[in-house]
Amino acid sequence: MTDQTPSRLRRPVYIVDGSRTPFLKVKGRPGPFTASDLAVQAGRALLARQPFEASTFDEVIVGCMMPGPDEANVARVIALRLGCGKTVPAWTVQRNCASGLQALDCAADDISNSRSELVLAGGVESMSHAPVLFNHDMVGWLADLNAAKTFGAKLGVFSKLRLKHLSPVIGLLRGLTDHTVGLSMGQTAEILAQRFNVTREDMDQYAMESHQRLAHAQDSGYLNEIATLYDTAGNHYSADDGLRRDTDMPRLAKLKPVFDRPFGKVTAGNSAQVTDGAAMLILASEAAVKKHHLKPLGRIIDSQWAGLDPAQMGLGPAHAMAPILQRQKLAVSDVDYWEINEAFATQVLACVRAWQDAAYCRTELAFNDAIGKIPRERLNVDGGGVSLGHPVGASGARVVLHLLNVLKRNNAKRGIASLCIGGGQGGAMLIETV
After folding, report:
1. Averaged confidence pLDDT in the chain
2. Which pLDDT score is estimated for 2?
3. What value does the mean pLDDT take over residues 307-324?
4. Which of 64, 84, 97, 351 is catalytic?
5. What's phi and psi for 245, nearest 5 deg?
6. How far apart are the first and last CA of the chain?
7. What digits encode the pLDDT tens for the residues 266-282?
8. pLDDT band, very low/low/confident/very high, at 89 (cuts 50, 70, 90)
């Protein structure tokens, strides 16, 4: 192996800096921040320490699944609120759980192809503000009411109002269901548990370790990428609040299955938390780095997107990371640290086991033999979605940003960040420190 991995990009693309908000657990009511609020506060903290003005960016790209009703093309809303100016274009991307990673990938491609020199990119989701919608019956009733012109006609429409019209459509629940296969994301995790013999104890053990690792990271000051949030009531939020320091195996064992009652294994305790959060990064060309005297955290070497059976969507990372290793002629041991977004404990464990299964690697991934085992001590070393949450639009940007910080902290060189994607996809990015 050479010290410098050949990049698939035409020009070097550097990640200069990044900032994220604390990930705030959804607690029933809408949280204090909309999607643009979250991204703007993360962006302000990031831009405040840069030697250039916000208007210097060539474009702003943000991943988001569920922007609010006043946030059409939320990236443009964010760009304007950050002071990027009217002439800096901004656009929003959507690839379910990997929307933030897609934003980084799009920014890298634009820089690689000389369309941009300096890009603000990332992801955001305010899941507590996910829409609650009228059902079709109610929409039809409202249309009839609007069409009625006389008082008598309107009374006639009111006489047809029934309780079924008032049944809401919960956007969050519908969004976490794959309607092409008729399964919720949790049900796909149950399928993986059966296929790879992941036991309930395996899942709970992994979940407990995720919380323990996050607690250690918080106590050790490892999460310096977090920018404190301030709401309009004078409250501040400085840490991921989904952490459960008292989590242990007996407590986890008491939780009932959520997605396959009563016999399933996937519980709220070994699944990612529903959260609000944002992560924003600055990507730059070599010319921009020199022009503004920037000190990059690392550079993007390669990325990959993969598709697979939606019913087994959690295996997406195994499918996306494998071609990167093959293309770059890397072994598992050549990668110093790994971040696989923890949509479910089961899902991460299934990806790790899939790479150790020679038959799976041959038939599904086109390898001659098993790829190898990702060491647990090198994977999600500071916790993940199970302990800190998974705001779907933001997680792809968060895992890349945090992986860079892990590499820097440990004086390491190379890492891969990856996510599974609802609908049967996976995304991965290979990065190196500079």
Report:
1. 95
2. 40
3. 97
4. 97
5. -65, -25
6. 17
7. 999 999 999 999 999 99
8. very high
Show me where the domains of the chain are located.
183-222+301-433
Task: Kindly indicate the confidence band of residue 170, based on its pLDDT and cuts at 50, 70 and 90.
Answer: confident
Chain position carrying tokens 């860079």: 404
At the top level of CATH, the class of 183-222+301-433 is alpha beta
Residue with tokens 């009228």: 134
Q: How far apart are CA 395 and CA 274, in angstroms?
A: 12
The residue from 84, 351, 361, 420 that is catalytic is 420
Active site residue 97: yes
Mean pLDDT of 250-259: 94
Q: Cα separation of 181 and 343, whole Å?
A: 19
